[in-house]
Specification:
The structure holds 2 protein chains of 2 kinds. Chain A is built from 7 helices and no strands. Chain A is mostly helical. In chain A, 44% of the residues are buried. Chain B is an alpha+beta fold. In chain B, 30% of the residues lie in helices and 18% in strands. Chain B is built from 20 helices and 22 strands. In chain B, the strands form 5 sheets. A 5-stranded antiparallel β-sheet of chain B has the order 1-5-4-3-2, with no helix packed on it. A 5-stranded antiparallel β-sheet of chain B has the order 18-19-20-21-22, with no helix packed on it. In chain B, helix 12 runs parallel beside helix 14. The chains are: A mainly alpha, B alpha+beta. At the A-B interface, helix 1, helix 2, helix 3, helix 4 and helix 5 of A face helix 1, helix 3, helix 4, helix 5 and helix 6 of B.
Chain lengths: 184, 777
């Protein structure tokens, strides 16, 4: 999670296909598990998180020529993942289904068996509180507190200003605290 | 206020305050116990969040990525393969290091000598790929000769080979060894190796014409055959494909099918003639069936089939690629697919190619399959009759010229038609046919080893009468079914006993569905009693029990707040349901219900069929959409608190919705079940399901609907498609020239036609001329 790398500008010429492929392979090995977990926490659905993890690294590969100019690989990858997740969530909201059972809309999305946090009550409580936050607030809080991102990195990853990150982080903490305490 | 807010924001990011901010915060914390408490809470929060365990992705994700990346660097469609095969690649994929090594080794060995460029990732391999870098047989410098073991030259009489490439001289001459081993996961690499090996071989033996010697051709086959998955009679063919009179070598062992040609200067050219579109190329094996002249186009056509599947459940994708001698690439002029249902009594249905009149005609025959076949198919009556589609070359493409349907030829086919009516919601038509069959009046053979179709018909007729409240008729038919000593008699007994005591058809159906031991036994036995892998619960038709419980409801009654009422109806009758939704799935303006059921089993894994309940002129009926993965049940997630069923997406070919069930998008267009595969990188279109039984016939290429949609999430809305200028889907009931397509799906397999003369392809009615179905009641 602490793994980040500052890259310098390419010195000359183009990076060969083998090198960029190798670079993408390396990034995949380093980040795919964390990206999956991040997407899972944003989407609360394992299959969806799998799909978007695939898509994240596919996009990374497709735009690999830009890697040479990226200063912070980690923020770049999380930016791709975040964009995919937010777009997917936006599309999902376009469709409205009538609720099946009373209270379906209030179903706790964190209550999923595949989430290892569900095995320990305290961690389940944290995951449940986190899941109540909208993704716009959940993402910066996750990145700051779980992935150890700086405010600047979060701004890069979410494509928002640093001041917006500060505001969201503050609000996210308020929301999380309330949800956590309500659940106790 | 702003100052206080700024201060709190600083607390929220306490970990990275600069020196000045840190001093300010420290000072204020000393004066403000509440702020100090808040900071403590934030630290605690961060600790908790940091300790939150991460869900772990499926290892197949990483394996598939490595494989895809290797393929991509090898120039093949690695990403599409990644996404399509991710669930199935466990344990089959080599690591990145090995693959990169293979790529580099391949490049080092062959690139300099043969100058074979790999296709870039952006290049779309369909409809054809071409190796445009010629290998000059006559001008290549000679390489080292094999020594010790027999050399190719010693194997083959005839033309003296002109060694031109470097090969492993210490090993027997086998240009295909090693690299082909990466098939099927690395199809692209294997294909590149195949081409390189073929070139090496052809250079060794002196060119394509040397293959006219059977010994040389046999030598090639002996070397190539151990490295390819399926070898057929037409895997290697020396035929005249291109204009000019010479012969070319058609190699059909891996997608692509390659055509090797040699020009007057001895330069070798290779062209690929198309990939399978509907089956994964790694699981398909091609056969170049026939080379044909395509009059009026100055083009030569090559008819290719891509086999797919297993022994009893196969399909063939068919491609006609044309080359006019001037284009750089082959053109796809027709594509189709048919199942080859060897498990059916009728056996594999052939594809006919007729070039006798000089105008090529292709005919595809789709067998009559239905709910009681393995595999089961959709619910459209049209599809349950044997059908032959005829395509004729019109100078530019193969045009669909006729559809012919046959009457049911067996009791199985007759039952399939009756069942199709039932699943369409036309209970009267279904009941009439089932009564005819139950009375032994179909006049059709049952077939050796077939289930007792009369008992099945009596059971279904009894169930239908019971659902309609016709108690006496129900008991009569059920009583007849219960007399049977077959397994079907046992099923009728379970249903009939509960019905006798309760007079409630739904409760009786629920009792049937609750007998997990019997269901498991019958499903595992198969024998055509149930639908087989595609729909194992066909005999039990669990959704119909749910539909029957809604008898006094209409779609208008399904409003927000009513689901508890619906659930109560089911639960009170002993029907166990899980996730479900209300939605206008078929676009008719009224709501349908999509719901999963739990069919218990004495074993750990139960069945979880998903049904769509639609309201038609004769009430509610159930459409089987598929089954949720049984693992959900084993994991105790059903009927758990999660919503369960995913959001629907618009179907690419019309105004109805699809829902993902077990990886396949299924929907009900009001007439039949439609199934699709979602777009994937490299495959930007929605594709009809790759289940062979859902593709009969596959829409011809010109009828396919190219739709660009996001890879995940929902498909585009119709408005979005319009904005993108994408083509409008063609009508599904296109009137083809020369056809006698019925105006509705219903009027071609109607009741008996007294004067009808049964012929294989001109009749579609019930085959008992004088049968008069007994109406319900």
């Amino acid at each position: 999670m602490m793994d980040s790398k500052v890259m310098t500008q390419p010195t000359s010429g183009e990076t060969s296909a083998t090198e960029t492929a190798g670079q993408v392979a390396d990034l995949f090995e380093r980040y795919h598990e964390a990206i999956f977990a991040y997407l899972y926490r944003l989407l609360n659905e394992a299959q969806w998180a799998h799909d978007l993890t695939q898509e994240t690294f596919l996009r990374l590969y497709q735009t690999r020529e830009r890697l040479a100019t990226v200063e912070n690989e980690r923020a770049w990858i999380y930016r791709i993942a975040s964009n995919l997740a937010f777009n997917a969530l936006k599309r999902r909201r376009r469709f409205s289904w009538l609720p099946w059972r009373e209270g379906d809309a209030a179903v706790d999305p964190a209550l999923r068996a595949e989430d290892p946090a569900m095995r320990i009550p305290e961690q389940a409580h944290v995951a449940r509180a986190l899941a109540t936050l909208s993704p716009a607030y959940r993402a910066p809080l996750l990145l700051y507190s779980h992935y150890d991102f700086s405010v600047r990195e979060i701004a890069e990853a979410l494509e928002i200003s640093e001041s917006a990150v500060k505001t969201r982080l503050f609000r996210a903490r308020q929301m999380f605290r309330e949800a956590y305490e309500d659940g106790e | 206020m702003n100052e206080q807010r700024e201060f709190l924001e600083k607390l929220a990011r306490y970990r990275e305050l600069n020196a000045a901010e840190r001093r300010e915060v420290t000072r204020r914390l000393e004066d403000d116990p509440a702020a100090a408490e808040l900071l403590g809470a934030y630290r605690e929060m961060d600790e908790r969040l940091a300790r939150l365990p991460d869900p772990v992705p499926d290892p197949a994700l990483a394996r598939a990525f490595r494989s895809a990346l290797a393929r991509e660097t090898a120039g093949d469609r690695g990403w599409s393969g990644w996404l399509r095969r991710a669930p199935a690649v466990a344990g089959q994929v080599a690591g990145v290091a090995l693959l990169l090594l293979l790529v580099l080794a391949g490049a080092l060995l062959f690139r300099d000598q043969l100058q074979m460029p790999a296709a870039g990732p952006g290049q779309t391999p369909t409809p054809a790929g071409e190796d445009t870098t010629p290998a000059a047989l006559a001008t290549q410098p000679a390489g080292p000769q094999p020594t010790g073991t027999p050399t190719p030259a010693s194997f083959f009489p005839g033309p003296t080979p002109t060694p031109a490439v470097t090969i492993d001289v210490a090993a027997p001459f086998d240009p295909f060894a090693g690299y082909m081993a990466v098939w099927p996961e690395q199809t692209g690499m294997a294909h590149g190796s195949l081409r390189a090996g073929m070139k090496a071989f052809l250079q060794q033996v002196g060119g394509i014409e040397a293959l006219a010697d059977p010994a040389v051709m046999a030598g090639l086959e002996n070397r190539l055959r151990p490295h390819v998955p399926v070898w057929g009679e037409q895997s290697l063919q020396l035929v005249d494909v291109y204009p000019g009179g010479g012969r070319e070598l058609v190699v059909a062992v891996l997608p692509y099918v390659d055509i090797y040609a040699q020009d007057g200067n001895g330069i070798l050219h290779v062209r690929g003639a198309g990939l399978p579109r509907y089956w994964p190329e790694a699981d398909s094996w091609p056969q170049a069936v026939q080379v044909m002249t395509l009059p009026g186009s100055d083009a030569t056509g090559i008819f290719i089939t891509y086999g797919y599947g297993e022994v009893n459940d196969r399909a063939a994708e068919l491609l006609v690629a044309a080359f006019d001698g001037t284009r750089a690439y082959w053109q796809e002029v027709w594509r189709g697919a048919v199942p080859e249902l060897a498990a059916l009594p009728e056996g594999v249905q052939p594809v006919e190619i007729d070039v006798g009149t000089g105008i090529p005609v292709l005919s595809l025959t789709c067998p009559a399959v239905g709910a009681f076949d393995r595999p089961a198919a959709g619910d459209n009556v049209d599809q349950r009759l044997a059908r032959r589609d005829v395509y004729q070359w019109n100078g530019m493409r193969f045009e669909h010229v006729s559809i012919e349907r046959a009457a049911p030829q067996t009791q199985r086919q007759f039952a399939n038609v009756a069942e199709a009516y039932l699943r369409q919601g036309d209970f009267a038509e279904a009941l009439a046919r089932y009564r005819v069959l139950a009375a032994g009046e179909s006049g059709l053979p049952a077939g050796t080893g077939e289930p007792d179709w009369q008992t099945l018909a009596a059971l279904r007729a009894g169930q239908l009468h019971a659902l309609q409240g016709e108690t006496d008729a129900a008991r009569e038919m059920l009583g007849r079914a219960r007399l049977s000593s077959t397994q079907l008699g046992r099923v009728a007994g379970v249903f009939g006993e509960t019905y006798d005591t309760s007079g409630d058809a739904v409760a009786a159906w629920a009792a049937l569905l609750a007998d997990g031991e019997m269901i498991r036994e019958l499903v595992s036995q198969g024998n055509g009693l149930a639908g087989g892998a595609a729909e194992p619960l066909a005999l039990f038709y669990p959704g119909m029990a749910l539909a029957g419980a809604l008898a006094d409801l209409t779609p208008a009654d399904l409003v927000q707040g009513s689901p508890p009422d619906v659930l109560a109806r089911w639960n009170s009758r002993g029907l166990d349901v899980g996730p479900g939704r209300f939605a206008d799935m078929d676009g008719d303006g009224s709501l349908e219900i999509v719901v999963a059921q739990m069919i218990p089993s004495p074993e750990e894994v139960s069945y979880v069929p998903v049904s769509l309940l639609d309201y038609g002129p004769q009430g509610w009926h159930a459409v089987s959409l598929g089954e949720l993965p049984a693992a959900n049940v084993a994991a105790g997630q059903f009927p758990g608190p999660e919503p369960g069923l995913p959001e629907p997406v618009p179907a690419p070919d019309g105004g109805y919705l699809l829902i993902e069930i077990g990886g396949i998008y299924a929907g009900w267009d009001g007439q039949q079940v439609q199934t699709f595969q979602a777009p994937r990188p490299g495959y930007p279109e929605w594709l009809r399901s790759n289940r062979p039984d859902h593709l009969c016939p596959l829409p011809a290429a010109e009828q396919m609907v190219p739709v660009t949609v996001p890879i995940t999430g929902e498909g585009p809305t119709p408005a979005a498609l319009e904005q993108e200028g994408l083509p409008t889907p063609p009508p599904t009931s296109t009137q083809f020239p020369g056809t006698a397509l019925p105006p509705t799906p219903w009027d071609q397999d109607g009741m008996p036609q007294p004067s009808a003369t049964p012929t294989p392809w001109d009749q579609d009615g019930m085959p008992q001329p004088n049968a008069t179905p007994t109406p319900a009641g």
